[in-house]
Design goal:
Shape: elongated
Number of domains: 2
Distance between the termini: 77 Å
Largest sheet: 4 strands, antiparallel
Order of helices and strands: HHHEEHHEHEEHE
Strand order of the largest sheet: 4-5-3-6
Oligomer: single chain
Radius of gyration: 27 Å
Number of helices: 7
Helix content: 40-55%
């Protein structure tokens, strides 16, 4: 009753295997949907196909070579293809990781690809309860851990980079440093770059202090001598026009970042 067809191999093409593949399809689709909603590079289609493909490879490893087995002469290890799946998925994950300066992107998405492969393999190996548990654990980690981490590290100082452009000769540098220190930040490093043609100085500060930068950035943008501010943090990096209203966006950059080229342009 379990066999779907009478031709081909004696085992491996029954309703049991179809159910295992369907389970892998559903669970990996749920994982991929979470990545798709967050607009990650590996989304619904990628993770679904990766998990489904891993499940099929494992079934091939279990049932696909029964015609060459001869008792006492040819013995195959059914786990050999599964081991190659673990190695091969590393290439997909490696292609999702990008390093720009000291910022690493894509690590979580690469780890999710790894998890989706594991879920697909678990379904094909006849371990659906483990696959469902890992899928639920995935959602716990991606949705439950970020608020927990923010709660635990709320009072922990963080290091960030702030870039400002100001007009020279108006005492802006003294006011900027005073505002930084009174806001509870420690200046670890400071560097300047002068633009002779416009008499504008670009100041780069590496600061250690509170995680919330809104108060500091508001004070900097309201200074009459400051032309622009760049947080250098988050995906929405850009120049902030002085006097612009802050607006939470639910992203690492919790203020509106708009391009601004300075006065008179």
């Amino acid at each position: 009753m379990n066999e779907l067809v009478s031709f081909g191999e004696p085992t491996g093409q029954g309703w049991t295997q179809i159910t295992e593949l369907t389970t892998a399809l559903v669970l990996c689709s749920l994982i991929g949907l979470e990545r798709e909603l967050k607009q990650k590079s590996a989304g619904l289609r990628t993770l679904t196909l990766v998990g489904l493909g891993a499940a099929l490879f494992l079934l091939i490893s279990k049932y696909g070579f029964t015609d060459v087995l001869v008792e006492g002469r040819a013995v195959l290890d059914p786990s050999r293809v599964a081991a190659q799946i673990v190695s091969g998925v590393g290439f997909i994950g490696g292609g999702l990781i990008f390093v720009r300066q000291n910022i690493v992107r894509g690590l979580t998405t690469a780890a999710v690809v790894w998890v989706s492969v594991a879920v697909g393999c678990a379904c094909a190996a006849g371990l659906p309860l483990l696959a469902v548990f890992v899928t639920a654990a995935h959602f716990l980690v991606v949705y439950g851990y970020p608020p927990l981490v923010r709660l635990l590290t709320r009072s922990r100082p963080t290091t960030t980079v702030v870039r400002t452009s100001y007009r020279d000769g108006e005492g802006a540098l003294r006011d900027i440093l005073e505002l930084v220190t009174t806001s509870g930040y420690v200046v670890e490093h400071a560097s300047t770059n002068r633009t002779e043609a416009t008499n504008v100085i670009d100041l780069r500060l590496r600061l250690t202090g509170p995680r919330q930068l809104a108060t500091l950035l508001t004070g900097l943008s309201d200074h009459p001598g400051v032309l622009a501010v760049d947080t250098g943090r988050g995906r929405h990096r850009g120049m902030i026009r002085p006097g612009a209203a802050w607006r939470a966006r639910g992203s690492p950059c919790r203020w509106r970042c708009v391009r601004w080229r300075g006065p008179g342009r």
